[in-house]
Amino acid sequence: MSPKEPMDTPFHNPGWAGNTGEFDLTEDQVRGDDFVGSRPLAGAHPSSSASYPYVLVDKHPESPLFEGPYRERFDKILTRYPDTRAALLPVLNLAQEVRGHVSPETMDRVGELLDLEPAYVRGVVTFYTMYNKRPVGRFLIQVCTNISCNLCGADEVMDAFLRYSNTEPGETSEDGDFTVIEAECLAGCGFPTCVQINSRYYENVKAGDIPSLCERLRADGK
Amino acid sequence: MADHADLPETVTLTIDGQQVTVPKGTSILHAAEQAGTQVPHYCYHAGLSAPAMCRLCLVEVEKAPKLLPSCVTQVAEGQVVHTQSDKSLTMRRGVLEFYLHNHPLDCPICDQSGECKLQDYAHEEGRPHGRVREPKRVFGRDDFGGDVLFYGDRCVMCTRCVRFMNEVEQDPRLAVVERGDRSIIDTFFDEGLEGTNFHGNVVDICPVGALLSKDFLFKQRAWDLSHTDSVCPNCSQGCNIELHTRDNLVQRLRPRPNLDVNGHWMCDEGRLDYEWINRGGRLEVPLVRDGKEFHATDWKEALVGLVRELGAGPVRALVSPRLSNEDLGAARALVDQLGGGDLVYRSRRAPEELVLKGFPKLARRRDLAPNVNGADLLGMSRVGDNDGTGGLEGLASHDGIVLVVGDDLEDQPPTFGKEAALYVFLGTHSSEAASHAHFTLPLTTFAEQEGTFTNHENRVQRFWSGLPAPGAARPAWLILWALLAEHTGQTQPTRPEEAFVTVSEFGDVTYETLGKQGVIVTPPTRQEPAGAIGD
Ligand code: SF4
Ligand code: SF4
């Protein structure tokens, strides 16, 4: 099979796992962009209602926990576990989906909902790095700086993101758009440097791609 | 007691070359204790679950592929365990080196120094020199509220404190937050431990100086303290405790394990209420009143003078539930000798019990004195209100013999006992209401004498003397029996164990049979108010 012409991507890089041209697929198809937002708000079957994040919402740090379709998803999550302690992780996911980050008030509220001590909830939240303990920007950019990515220029990518957003690691840019942090291995070692932006992976990212990537994020909102 | 069929099966194994036979299901750690070997451990505590996470109690077991955590591994027949083999020791040395990696090594300013498990183990088995060249991570300290101060850098992450709050106090206010080398014990932000009634125990069980008592902070060095077995005098639960004393003062109280009474724990109120034992201004010599004047005298003169005045007559006596059984027994014997009369006591009563949920046998009981049941058992009756005041109208104006033992009469007017033909006051402190006493005799506190208390379930428990008596102060039983000896001309008890067996209610129980754990003499007569959980 002769290699096809490389596909016409919006920019040369970042690439994605499919852009060697071997498959006749668009970037959106490969990225699985289709699913985003297409799940019913109420979260469908209980087995999938906790997964994160199926629904894009306007996150607000003071949104109620939980109302409307989110209350339905919350109830469904509870049906999947023998006790509320076991349901803590998915409920925290849901809370983060609604509020954008898990603040002390959120921990307290989740503890109240599940009848757990707030200190215990805090212990769990702080153990997992994927709960944001502080507010983050519209785009949470996680740059893998673990070994493979690091060998292929992750530090420069990190720097480029920081320069573009004019922030320090963990800070949110003034316009509220970007928060850049380092991540340990994202399991994309075959495609360094791997960057996760909100829930999507961007592979083969080079420092030079950052401005156009960020522009596109701003423009498309995803 | 147990039926032979119920006898647990036993297992015989070899630990460090020594054969031991222990009940089936025993952990290697406990079996080793019986063989005389202490296996170092942090996370394991007899009163808590065993998560086997500190990795310090790993021992070599022959035929096992790797070292096994001795705190959770049950003994097996014919097992051969080496706690001191090269493999075990090398492993422990390595683990200890990790424990010291971020430790600030600030023993000279640490209260735990001298009773610290990290210090002990590192000294016994650790490396003589550290190899760390990297900077240490620093947490600083945090106020956990209540009596507890947290020094984050000293913590070894054994989670004993977290498990205590989860399992025993059952108010999980402590948690491990963050992860990796940033893990730290914390409460929910500013929540703290205030409002919990048993949190002082986390200070006791913390194997290192990470959790410290604010009350004891920088007060004494641990190795300077003398330890005396005693019984908590602050409620009728009668928790077994140790008095830690120095400079003739009680410096702190610590629980002493007794699984029938308090497990390994004690309450915060009881723990921190010891300053009254140290109160100064004590009565130190017998005083005899002559008109308005009091004359200091010696015991002989006081007692001989007192016996001379002791005509038979209607006696009314006020005793105190803070007195020992021996004291109460002697007071009753004296009253009987004088022809009988009323014996009453007053006691403070808290509005409710404070139960330790994970060990419901233990509760801060409503009666805030150690020997209310002893007084009841001896047929004395309670008067006054729940503050331990009032109720003495008849006694205050009685015109026969008035005998006050151990009650300091602080709420009574100076006219107390004015009408009495003979007013004898035995106490630790004088008060206005004692100004009409013909004889004022100095008493010791429970900390200065040996004796027994009867707790809420009529368990009689011994306590020992940890402090010297001030001046010529004597235990009440000794004074009263001496009086009786003088009065009757017969020999009377001169030692506490003799005084104890004169009390017929205790049957054939003696100090020997009481031992350190105490004995229930009769089922309790008074029912504790409802509200206790479980047994
Ligand atoms: S504070 Fe003390 S008891 Fe609690 S985990 Fe640390 S070392 Fe253990
Ligand atoms: S429960 Fe009672 S006996 Fe026990 S420590 Fe508290 S006050 Fe003392």
Descriptive notes:
The complex is a heterodimer of chains A (222) and B (535). Chain A is of the alpha+beta class. Chain A has helices at 27-31, 68-79, 88-99, 104-114, 118-127, 147-151, 154-165, 210-220, and strands spanning 139-144, 178-183, 195-197, 200-202. In chain A, helix 3 (88-99) packs across helix 4 and helix 4 crosses helix 5. Chain B has 3 domains: 10-84, Ubiquitin-like (UB roll), CATH 3.10.20; 104-224, Alpha-Beta Plaits; 287-520, Rossmann fold, CATH 3.40.50. Chain B has helices spanning 28-34, 86-99, 117-125, 160-168, 200-205, 268-272, 299-309, 325-337, 372-377, 393-396, 476-488, 496-501, 511-514, and strands spanning 10-15, 18-23, 58-61, 68-69, 80-82, 141-143, 148-151, 175-177, 184-186, 211-213, 226-231, 240-246, 249-255, 287-290, 293-296, 315-319, 341-345, 354-355, 363-364, 381-382, 401-405, 422-427, 439-442, 451-454, 459-463, 519-520. In chain B, helix 2 crosses helix 3 (117-125), helix 7 packs across helix 11 and helix 8 runs parallel beside helix 11. One iron/sulfur cluster binds next to helix 4 of chain B.
In short:
The complex is a heterodimer of chains A (222) and B (535). Chain A is an alpha+beta fold.
Biggest interface and its residues per chain?
Answer: A-B, 12 and 14 residues
| Computed Rg of chain A | 19 Å
Broad structural category of chain A: alpha+beta
Distance between the termini of chain A: 34 Å
Task: Name the assembly state.
Answer: heterodimer
The best one-word shape of chain A is elongated
Say what the CATH topology of the largest domain in chain B is: Rossmann fold
Number of extended strands of chain A: 4
Determine the strand fraction of chain A and express it as a percent band: 5-15%
CATH architectural grouping of the largest domain in chain B: 3-Layer(aba) Sandwich
The number of domains of chain A: 2
Structure annotation, total helices of chain B: 13
The spatial strand order of the largest sheet of chain B comes to 15-14-23-22-21-16-17-20
**Sheet with the most strands of chain A?**
4 strands, mixed
Question: What is the mean predicted local confidence, pLDDT of chain A?
Answer: 80
Bound ligands, named by name, code or SMILES: iron/sulfur cluster
Which secondary-structure class do the elements of chain B indicate?
A: alpha+beta
| Main CATH class of the largest domain in chain B | Alpha Beta
